[in-house]
Amino acid sequence: MTTTEAGGVTGTFSPRPGAAPLPRMIRAQAALETRMLLRNGEQLLLTVIIPTLLLVLFSAVDIVAVPTGTAAGAGRSVDFLAPGVLALAVLSTAFTGQAIATGFERRYGVLKRLAVSPLPRWGLMTAKTCAVLVTEVLQIALLTAVALALGWSPQGSPLTVALLLLLGTAAFSGLGLLMAGTLKAEATLAAANLVFLLLLVGGGVIVPLDKFPEAAQSVLGLLPITALSDGLREVLQHGAGIPWPDLGILAVWAVLGLGAAARFFRWE
Question: Per UniProt, what is the membrane topology (predicted)?
């Protein structure tokens, strides 16, 4: 309420100073983060085009032998490949894309300026997480449509699939933010892309895990990408119930990654 000196008129004037409500700030920042992700051509190549091309290529061409009993025609190949490519989509967005984008925002002082805005730091991270989830929904919708067109026959419970994807997102987000918040931007760019390529080959996404030596299988089986791709494959390909071992591995990675990111992340 304000009183004027001339006429003693009181009233409420607009715009009113002060920060917007916290939920509105988070929604606005999440919308901005999503638009930035979708407008970045390099990120679109990484998060959308590469997984889609891999799904189409390896489903149509007999390049990698899938496990026994799953290679009876292109439809059977895509039944094996589609869950792995969905896991790859989560990896590309929640880990690689987020690590690179956040690393360069930190380098150019964007995070430092946002940290002193009315939006709290945890609110900024929440907005980034929401942007990642929106992008993943679009990715999964596109990849699912392509896989169905290639003859995919998914099984299992959608709720179990959603739980696996959420835990996978949490695990990869924690690792991506940890990398972005501790390394230089150039190092983050190189390391994130290298990890993406290594996990693409050794994470059971395209190449079945049983193609590796037994000693390597025991180590690779503990990786979050392996747990996510194997869990999705158990549900979507074999119609299994809840894959507790895979969920447990993802939960451990999520706790460790997010905890380490919260502890060691540097804003400048």
Answer: Multi-pass membrane protein
Lowest mean pLDDT among 36-50, 81-95, 156-170, 176-190: 36-50
Q: Judge whether residue 211 has pLDDT over 90.
A: no
- The answer to whether 28 touches 51, Cβ cutoff 8 Å, is no
* Joined tokens for residue 105: 């925002």
Q: Model's pTM, two decimal places?
A: 0.86
CA 162 – CA 158 distance, rounded (Å)? 6
**Beta-carbon contacts of residue 243 (< 8 Å; ≥ 6 apart):** 160, 164, 230, 231, 234, 235
- Residues facing 2 on adjacent strands: 11
Write the secondary structure of the chain as one string of H (helix), E (strand) and C (coil).
CEECCCCCCEECCCCCCCCCCHHHHHHHHHHHHHHHHHHCHHHHHHHHHHHHHHHHHHHHCCCCCCCCCCCCCHHHHHHHHHHHHHHHHHHHHHHHHHHHHHHHHHHCCHHHHHHCCCCCHHHHHHHHHHHHHHHHHHHHHHHHHHHHHCCCCCCCCHHHHHHHHHHHHHHHHHHHHHHHHHCCHHHHHHHHHHHHHHHHHHCCCCCCHHHCCHHHHHHHCCCHHHHHHHHHHHHHCCCCCCCHHHHHHHHHHHHHHHHHHHHHCCCC
- Residue 242 tokens read as 């809840």
Considering only residues 180 and 39, tell me which one the structure prediction assigns the higher pLDDT.
180
174 touches 254 (CB < 8 A): yes
